[in-house]
Amino acid sequence: MLSYLKKLHSNPNTLFYVIPIGLFGGFVFWQSLLNNYVVEVANFSGRDIGILQSCRELPGLLAVTALFFLLFLSEQFFLVFALALMGTFIIVFGHMHTIFSLSLTCMLMSFGFHYSETLRKSLATQLVHKDILSIVLGRFRSIGSFVSILAFGTVYVGWKLLHLSYSTLFTIGGSISILVALYILIAFPKYEIKEQQHKKPRFYKRYWIFYILNILSGGRRQLFVVFAPFLMVSTFKLEIDKMVSIFFISQLLTMYFAPKVGKVILKIGERNALIIEHLILIFIFAGYVLIHTAWQGITLYIADNIVFSMSFALDSYFKRIAQKKDIASTTALSFTMNHTLAISLPVILGFIWLSSHKFVFAVGICLAAASLITSFCLPKNPRQGVESIFKERQQAT
C-alpha cells in the first residue's frame, strides 16, 4: 500500500487531484455561508457586500507579490503555506461581526486563496504536458466540484439537521484546508522544475491576448461570485438551505461535465472553446437582466457555473504559446491583471445595485462581448511564435 502511494505521489499530476480538496473544501464552506452570514449577522446591504468583496479581491491584485516569496521559497512549499493561511482565516472569519473585522479577515483569507490559485496554475503549466493539460484541469475542476458537493452537503446537514452555529461550520471548512496542506507537505516529494523561472514580473507583448482575456475574466467572475448569489438572497429571499441546495446541484452537474469539457477543448481547440464560452455568457447575462423569478435566476446560475469549465481553454492556450522560463512570472502577472477589474467592480456595481440590479448584469453583457471579440484573435493552432491570428496570417504569407 505504501509503495503504491509513493508511486502515485511521484506522478506530479496527482498533486493537482489533491489540491482541489484543500482549495475548494475550505473555500466552499466560506462561500456557501457568506451571503446569509453577512446579511443575518452584520445586516449587510449591496454596498457593504461590494466593499467586502473588493477587500477579498485586493490580494488577487497583489498576486504578483508571490514572486518575491519565490526568491527564497519553492513554489510547492509556498503553495502549502498559502493553503494553510487560507484555512486559518476561514476559521477566524466565523467569529467576526462588523464590516471592518469581516473585511480585514476576508482579505487575509483571500491572500491564501489567491496565492494558492496562482501557484497551482503556475505549477500545472510547468509540470503537466501541454497535450493533456486541458484534461488534467478538467479533472481538477471535476474533483473540486465533488469536494464542493460534499462541503455543501455538510453545511446543509450541519445547519438544517444538527443546528451547528456559523462559527462551527467555518471552523470545519478552514480545518479541511489546513489538513490538506499538511498532507501535501508530508506525502508528496519535491518535484524538480527543470527550467529556471524569472522571479521578476515582466510584460511580454506576445502574451497580449492572454492578458486581456484574464482582465475581462476577472470582471465577469465578480458578477457570478458576488452578485448572482446576492440577487437570490436579497431579492428573491432564498434561505441558507435553499442556497446550499443550489450550490450542490450546480457542482454536481459541473463534476459530470468538467472532464468532458476538457476533452472537448482538446478536440475543437482553444479558440473555438473560448468563442463558444463567451457567446453563451452574453445570453446568460442578458437573462439576468430580464428575470423575474428565483427559478430563472437559479437556472442561469447553474448554467454559468458549467460554462465556467470552458475557461480552462485559456490556460491550455497559454501552455502552448509560453516559453518555459516565463511561466511563473507571467502567471503571477496575469493573475494580478485578472483582478484589476475584480477589485474595482464590486464597489462600483454595489452602488449601482442600489438603483437597479439590471444595470449590474448589463455590464456583464459588455464584458462577455469584449471577451468574445478578443477570442476571435486566437490562432487556430497556437504555438510559440504564433500567439495570435495576425501572426498566423503573417506566417501563411
Walkthrough of the structure:
With 397 residues, the protein is mostly helical. The chain is 79% helix and 0% strand. It is built from 16 helices and no strands. Helix 2 packs antiparallel against helix 8. The termini are far apart. The mean pLDDT is 82.
Name the features:
397 residues; mainly alpha
Give me the Rg, rounded.
20 Å
Helix content: over 70%
Distance between the termini: 58 Å
Q: Main β-sheet, in a few words?
A: none
> Which class best fits the helix and strand makeup?
mainly alpha
Number of helices: 16
Number of strands: 0
Strand content: under 5%
Mean pLDDT, nearest integer?
Answer: 82
Report the oligomer.
single chain
Uncertain spans: none
In short:
The chain is an all-alpha fold.
In terms of topology, how is this protein built?
Layout: H1 2-10, H2 12-42, H3 46-61, H4 66-69, H5 75-93, H6 99-127, H7 133-161, H8 166-187, H9 208-234, H10 240-268, H11 270-290, H12 294-307, H13 312-321, H14 327-353, H15 357-375, H16 389-396
Helix pairs in contact: 2-5, 2-6, 2-7, 2-8, 3-6, 3-9, 3-14, 5-6, 5-8, 6-14, 7-10, 7-13, 9-12, 9-14, 9-15, 10-11, 10-12, 11-12, 11-13, 11-15, 14-15
